[in-house]
Amino acid sequence: MQPSPSFFPKQRRLVQVSIFAKPLQWKTSG
Fold first, then answer.
1. Looking at the record's lineage, which domain of life comes first (predicted)?
2. pLDDT above 70 (res 7)
């Protein structure tokens, strides 16, 4: 099963969001 081309930008954006959300979690929890 080959992923659609539109799947890759979404995945990259998801990775960027997760990387960006980690410091936010640290700020809110800390």
1. Eukaryota
2. no
Residue burial 1-30, b: 16+ Cβ < 10 Å; e: rest:
eeeeeeeeeeeeeeeeeeeeeeeeeeeeee
DSSP one-letter string for 1-30: -PPPTTHHHHHHHHHHHHHHHHHHHHHHH-
The predicted pLDDT at position 5 comes to: 64
